[in-house]
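Report of the visiting student (M.T.), summer placement. My assignment was to run the structure pipeline on a short list of targets and document each run. The first record concerns protein-lysine 6-oxidase.
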Amino acid sequence: METHLHFSLNVFQSVVSRDLDENQRATRANFIQKLINKKKHLEGRLKLIGGANKYEGNIYIYHAGRWGAICDDSWDEAAAQVACRTFNRTGVATHGGQFGEATEKFWMDDVVCEGNEPSLLQCIFSGWGSSDCERSEVAGVICREKIEESPLPLKQPKRMKTKTFLHQVLDVRGTSLRLVGGRNSNEGRVEIYHKGIWGSICPDGWTIYEAAVVCKHLALGYAEQALQTDYFGSSRIVLSGLQCEGNETNLFMCKHGEFGNVFCPGEKGYVAGAVCTRYLPDLLLDTTVIERTAHLHDVPMFQLQCAMEENCLSKSAYEIQQTNSNWQFETRRLLRFTASSLNIGNAEFRPYLPKHLWQWHLCHMHYHSMEVFATFDILHAAGNRIAEGHKASFCLEDNTCLPGVEQKYSCKNYGDQGVSINCSDIYHYNIDCQWVDVTDVVPGYYTFKVAVNPHARVAEQQYHNNVASCMLTLSDTYAAVHGCKLERP
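After the run finished, the structure tokens were exported:
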């Protein structure tokens, strides 16, 4: 063992010297490749730590030779199902370090799954190691055995309770809404008045979309924050399962689960709260630019090495890199396009991360202020994602402005980043990672979706202009994007 360790150290010392000849470079490459191959079979493997058994705990994923935690931002039941499927089980998500604080660095953040992915690697996330989470914000799961249904006796399947519109069960003429417990009239816990009683709303599933409708209902402008908290006090919970699209004019147009005596999971005393404001940005995605600029581009992999470092190609590209010594001469087919977002709001769009947490990207020679500003997905007819963009992080700046508006934000020289009112942030099709790798996608008809601010990490006036949902015709020689329409993420 000591002889082997001594040999490895000598090899390592010799290959990291400053002046390397061709043989030494080959030795270094072989040494590193052996280390990579040794750990390759662990890539993407999961383990659960801190639980009462091996099927529950905080979740850790193996990547690049080490284990790392997953942040609980955007972590939900769909992601938990994907994780537990690894252990041939079903399960539920846990948040806030339920099984203790993270003991490793965070590998993944803002994980968004549909629930049918074979592994977490196929879900959307902010990029390896891109996280602003504290050690207490670690995600976890509780995995349970799948229940096998017996064919006999035959039972009627249990039906899920259908959600109905609030106005169908309440007399809206005698129903009121208010914010109470806040420092001013623009914030507080949300209470609803019905039949002489004020009651709170269950925070389970409470999002910025529901809060936006509350602020609009009360003529307080837009939702700056949607809170699940006891900070504003609490009262008896009378409404659960609230679900809004975000563009309703009042809360009674939203759907709900139960009203009256309701069950509310989660921490005791926590209720739905909102903070309203009259000033927010509003990004409008330009669908015409996407349709006009989308095209296919075949690129040899030796020109994509910088993009590969940012995980901007599909999985097969990295498999080729590991197995083919001449991988640099292989070609990838990219669906390139330009994405332009105009801020039509009455406030600047600013990154939510403080400046000291921005990441320097050597390939682009500037700082990136947002891990996930946009997502690019290709879906087949059933709605399942078959290809996606992997742009790791983004730089926000004023590329063009309407006449009379001065450009304020720039990515150069560690400058402040953002999108000013009446200015556009433009990612041109010739920028690295401004594409979807469609090398493995068979010709056919698909849906192509481009979303900006997809997780609503930055509050906006509205969100139904943040996604361009387009038809994609893909052949062996060309791609056509057409029929784009705006919708919500």
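Residues 1-18, 148-160 have pLDDT under 50 and may be disordered. The first strand starts at residue 46 and ends at 50. I thank the supervising group for their guidance throughout the placement.
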